[in-house]
Amino acid sequence: MVFHSATAYKVLGFLSLNLWGRLSASVQRVISATISRLYETRFSRFMIGPYCLWQFGSWFHYRQFIPGSGKSRYETFQDFFTRDFASPPTVSDKGIWPCEGFLCEKGKVSEIPRVKVKGEVRNLRTVFGGSGPEIPNDYHFTNVFLHNKNYHHIHSPVSGVVKSIEHIPGELLLLRPWAYRKTPSLPALTNERVNVSLQDDQNQKWYLSIVGGPMVATINRGPGLKEGQRVAVGEKIASFRLGSTLCMVSPVPPAIPAGIWVSVGHPLHEHKPS
What we know:
With 274 residues, the protein is α+β, with helices and mostly antiparallel strands. Helices cover 17% and strands 27% of the residues. It contains five helices and 15 strands. A hairpin with a 2-residue loop joins strand 4 and strand 5 (120-122). The radius of gyration is 18 Å and the shape is globular. The relative contact order is 0.19.
């Protein structure tokens, strides 16, 4: 039986919420960590070429990057997944996209609908934990889904000072936005995440929520990510080990419409698909 893609993702969303989602967070984490370790075996490096051919049309796509381990060659698939740019992307001195991925939702804070999660109605302020209540209604919310094929590091969208860091334990629901269709940000309301608020040089606040999902073994903070620490626009502040999502609330309205892939370092105010 062949499913239409919409039907397949509807089934996937149901299974994520009603099968995987019924497991305790600790069990989800054990299963995720076990599968993640397979990508850290020496044998897994043989997956890199075929994966690049499948996703990018070139067996040698990985040569555009350097291993995330810092070594001279890729020794595991995880080295490719956490890859770094051979040449860092050019960034502007204004607000930039902090990551690469699919822009699955955007809108003013006041316009994003509330979502019912396991019998409880929540709004997107829940995503940002303790910083949620202070977020202005006229700020702009975006949710970027980082597909497995994407570059998986998070960069500071602005130059400024880290005002707060908050780790929120949670579940590891499937992150793929197509599985939730009308509520693509639903997993960000329940999943484990690290929330960061920044104050830029114009004294405006920026809010980031770095959200983990299934098979995410770790959300790694960069060495410069400390409260009171100054960060430069484009500076790497965090990274994922397998699948993820980044939610952001900013004072700058993004020009790119939802449904388009975005590039790390590209100015928020410019309309140019990746």
